[in-house]
């Protein structure tokens, strides 16, 4: 298990934003601190899952001192987010989607710092949790 530092930012009239210094461009948000932590755990797991699927190297966690020394971190609260490195075998699947829907998925996933696969896995897990809840 690895622990990564997430930074929680809160601007007036906004949700709690969460960023990961070890994963530039990866962000998420929550309506309150508990939601932000849950979203951070989910986002990290899905992002790393997508990196593994794409064959990308997973960075080593940075030291807290190094993260907090960066000027962008000064107004943030640091939390540790655990990543359980489960050995899930990625399986390639072939699906058919309308072209316009696929373009929307790709644009949204890229804006969230996710791969297409990572976004689709995240959306499917959320939908399944919503239905079973």
TrEMBL record:
Domain HicB-like antitoxin of toxin-antitoxin system: 4-124
Stored CDD domains: RHH_NikR_HicB-like (cd22231)
Gene3D superfamilies hit by this protein: 3.30.160.250, Met repressor-like
One BP annotation, GO: regulation of DNA-templated transcription
Coiled-coil boundaries: none
Protein name (database record): Type II toxin-antitoxin system HicB family antitoxin
Taxon lineage: Bacteria, Pseudomonadati, Pseudomonadota, Alphaproteobacteria, Hyphomicrobiales
């Amino acid at each position: 298990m690895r622990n990564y530092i997430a930074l929680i930012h809160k601007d007036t009239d906004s949700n709690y934003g969460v960023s990961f210094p070890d994963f530039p461009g990866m962000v998420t948000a929550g309506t309150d601190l508990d939601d932000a932590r849950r979203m951070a755990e989910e986002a990290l797991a899905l992002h790393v899952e997508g990196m593994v699927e794409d064959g990308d190297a997973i960075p080593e966690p940075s030291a807290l001192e190094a993260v907090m020394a960066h000027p962008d971190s000064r107004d943030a609260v640091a939390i540790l987010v655990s990543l359980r490195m489960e050995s899930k075998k990625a399986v390639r699947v072939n699906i058919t989607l309308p072209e316009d829907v696929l373009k929307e998925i790709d644009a949204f996933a890229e804006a969230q710092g996710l791969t297409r696969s990572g976004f689709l896995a995240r959306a499917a897990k959320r939908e399944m949790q919503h239905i079973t809840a």
